[in-house]
Amino acid sequence: MSVVVLNPENFSGEVLDTDKPVVVDFYAEWCGPCKMVGPVIETLSEEYGEEVKFAKLDIDQGQSLAAQYGVASVPTLILFKGGEKVDQLVGAHPKGRIKDFVDKSK
Fold first, then answer.
1. Mean pLDDT score of the chain, rounded to an integer?
2. Does domain 4-103 sit in CATH 3.40.30.10?
């Protein structure tokens, strides 16, 4: 399953109004570490398939959403389940650590 590109208009429908766990990558185009995490998110999206939805939100396009969910630095991954924020992981981490984070959704 491909990574969903989020914006303020589709955030609620793609993240909050779904029964599936969702991992949102809050990133910025100008962020070096974000460029390392992006491909990991793409790979994990393929590995998890329909089990977990992966999405990304450019904080420069969604500043109010980033503030609403307490994103102070990028990259920040936030795990949503049942429309609620259940956990977050701040910073660039290796695939194994991100996979452990995603597995909390099960």
1. 96
2. yes
